[in-house]
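Chain A, query sequence.
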Amino acid sequence: MPQNEPQLLKVNLKQLRLPVILAEHEKLAQEAAHQNASYQQFLLRLVELEVAQRAANALQARIKQAAFPVQKDFDS
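Chain A, predicted structure.
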């Protein structure tokens, strides 16, 4: 990979607002290479992580926006 490609990839992922892919792509690329995974499997795993994090963030935002007086769980 040419020297500027990793930096260009990071810039593009930041611009596209894909923070999970930015944080995880190198580790998952190594895992995919070790497991002989296809490009589609690698990409699917990256996208699944991004989608899962966005869902978690959206849930946290909705809970915060609801402004519940006290946070409770099933035990209390």
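The chain has a mean pLDDT of 91. The longest helix spans residues 39-66.
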